[in-house]
């Protein structure tokens, strides 16, 4: 739904050559950046600092997008008008209408992906900024709870503003398990282990495990769950 009150959503990343901010794929990009640093950060050399800045630029925005209780901002900008007027950000003059999901208009996939991004990023910053790391993890828990408690697809809640641009074709169950798996890795809390066990059976068995991206998380879930098992978090 369109959000008609003024809110600070400065920051984050544009989708492509346009000036629309689609939070769902943006959050996935931040999750993947954080994951790459967790796995390969020691090999990045001087580029590690660039990676950390890129991640924080995204997580600062995700904190803003989840700063109003009961709402998660899933998009900024009208994609139809914006796609007809490509221009550099310095010249942007298209409406910056924010679109949010809520209790009444849920969006479990975008909310759970934000939780995954914040949880993964909290581990990145834990050794260097414990206060910021704790803030990210606290928000990740809250947003995941929101995603799980008020289940529904943002396809239905945002309608033509989300589809066909970043329509969620695989359903939101994979994002819920993906978010829980990242929170399990970040916290080692039994709650998230039990959540993964209880909900992983709900994943669409027809989905391809050869595909991994902003919409389909099955392959990534397999990696995280396998890693957790190897690291003695028993399933």
UniProtKB/TrEMBL annotation:
It catalyses: Endohydrolysis of (1->4)-beta-D-glucosidic linkages in cellulose, lichenin and cereal beta-D-glucans. Keywords: Carbohydrate metabolism, Cellulose degradation, Glycosidase, Hydrolase, Polysaccharide degradation. Pfam families: Glyco_hydro_9. Belongs to the glycosyl hydrolase 9 (cellulase E) family. Residues 5-228 form the Glycoside hydrolase family domain. The lineage of its organism: Eukaryota, Viridiplantae, Streptophyta, Embryophyta, Tracheophyta. It comes from the Eukaryota. This is cellulase. InterPro entries: 6-hairpin_glycosidase_sf (IPR008928), 6hp_glycosidase-like_sf (IPR012341), Glyco_hydro_9 (IPR001701). Transmembrane segments: none annotated. It comes from Gossypium tomentosum (Hawaiian cotton). GO terms for biological process: cellulose catabolic process. GO terms for molecular function: cellulase activity. Its EC number is 3.2.1.4.
